[in-house]
Amino acid sequence: MDRKLKLRILHAILAKKGLMDEKKSIILQHTKERTDSAAKMTESELTSLIDFFSISKPSTKESANNMRRKIIAICASTMQMVTEGKPDMRKIYDFVQENGYLSKELNQYSYDELPKLVSQFEKIGDYYASQNSKSLKKSNS
Prior knowledge:
Blueprint: H1 3-16, H2 23-30, H3 43-53, H4 60-78, E1 82-83, E2 86-87, H5 89-99, H6 114-140
Antiparallel strand pairs: 1-2
Helix pairs in contact: 1-3, 4-6
């Protein structure tokens, strides 16, 4: 398959899943922050990203659970939603329902909706992490 066709396929997949607004973030994450441009992705990065979004149905449940676990980890680590050293699931579920882009419970997001939710929570986590580092700098001054 030639490169131009792969780029068109990737764009079609992202458009179909409603992820065009998140395209740069997805590519940046997939390339380990090397680039945010599909045109600058290597052949293997491009192929593996297409493959990621073209996963067959049997593994979508596992992939969806992995994405949910990532959101839980972001909430627990950067947003301090922890009780007795474990993620506080009630707080996390409530936060996702109140702040998730579809205002649904975490487990109600479908496989196709989860990548956008993960991207949203990565941005929220980055914000909380930056706020935490600012408060640490102030307290050390």
